[in-house]
Amino acid sequence: RKRIRTHHLREMKERGEKFAMLTAYEQYAAQTFDEAGIEVLLVGDSASNNVYGNETSLPVTVDELLPLTRAVSRSAPHALVVGDLPFGSYQSSPEQAYATAVRFLKEGGAHCVKLEGGREMVPQIELLTRGGIPVMAHIGFTPQSEHALGGYRVQGRGEAAQRVLDDAKAVEAAGAFAVVMEMVPGDVAAQVTRELSIPTIGIGAGNGCDGQVLVWQDAFGLRTGRMAKFVRQYADLHGVLLEAARAYADDVRAGTFPGPEHTF
Ligand code: KIV
Ligand code: NA
């Protein structure tokens, strides 16, 4: 297998083939997902709440995400590795966005970056693209704008559908190579997907998109608690780890581990 590049995703869209994307934040998840043929690995700012223990994605910093990005890019020989620009690291100007994105490629080894926003991010997307950094846009519900959007809610219902379509067309025209759509009605996301020539990637946006993305701890059941409607749980890793940790502790307390076969 060859390395997945941005043009491969576009060619898959043209052939009507769908592709899969997952988050990854460290070596073994990245290696395993790459081995499974997941085309795109996102070192999401969701590391804020899935690695660093925060409640939202807002607190995570560039300096916290770069080592995770490095770990994933070192560990994934085939996948396209996307660095996610965190809150506050790109919004204030195209120059700020470029300086931050360069760090994700130079220090993190990412192949491209993702940023949140539609029409308002056109200057950032244009400068990055001109400067040799492929950009994945992210529209619909954008978690970094949670407080501005008034909480977690579907974007693009009714008359607001036109805004999602306008955002999608604007980021495509600015040079984005793909666009994530989060919590957008399925029919709206399907229409956007038909009208764009760049691939769309859905999360809570129905199956009319060209690709899908999920946070891996949600999809594979490492995280417990309330799950968004758009998550399908493919495994119960929390249960597996909990049982293993309890079995180990039981053996240590009972004096049955280590056994003679583990002893020099
Ligand atoms: O940070 C993240 O995990 C994301 C995806 C879920 C799209 O941005
Ligand atoms: Na993100």
Automatic annotation (TrEMBL):
Principal EC category: transferase
GO terms, molecular function: 3-methyl-2-oxobutanoate hydroxymethyltransferase activity
Binding of Mg(2+), residues: D45, D84, E116
Keywords: Cytoplasm, Magnesium, Metal-binding, Pantothenate biosynthesis, Transferase
CDD domains: KPHMT-like
Cofactor note (record): Binds 1 Mg(2+) ion per subunit.
Residues binding 3-methyl-2-oxobutanoate, per UniProt: D45, S46, D84, K114
Transmembrane segments: none
Disulfide bond recorded as keyword: no
Active site residues according to the UniProt entry: E182
Reaction(s) this enzyme catalyzes, per UniProt: (6R)-5,10-methylene-5,6,7,8-tetrahydrofolate + 3-methyl-2-oxobutanoate + H2O = 2-dehydropantoate + (6S)-5,6,7,8-tetrahydrofolate
Pathway(s) this gene product operates in, as recorded in its UniProt entry: Cofactor biosynthesis; (R)-pantothenate biosynthesis; (R)-pantoate from 3-methyl-2-oxobutanoate: step 1/2
Compartments reported by the entry: Cytoplasm
Record's keyword annotation contains Magnesium: yes
InterPro entries, per the entry: Pantoate_hydroxy_MeTrfase, Pyrv/PenolPyrv_kinase-like_dom, Pyrv_kinase-like_dom_sf
SUPFAM superfamilies xrefs: Phosphoenolpyruvate/pyruvate domain
Cofactor: Mg(2+)
Enzyme Commission code(s) on record: 2.1.2.11
HAMAP family the UniProt entry points to: PanB
Function description: Catalyzes the reversible reaction in which hydroxymethyl group from 5,10-methylenetetrahydrofolate is transferred onto alpha-ketoisovalerate to form ketopantoate.
Quaternary structure (record): Homodecamer; pentamer of dimers.
Family of this protein: Belongs to the PanB family.
Descriptive protein name: 3-methyl-2-oxobutanoate hydroxymethyltransferase
Native source organism of the sequence: Nocardioides taihuensis
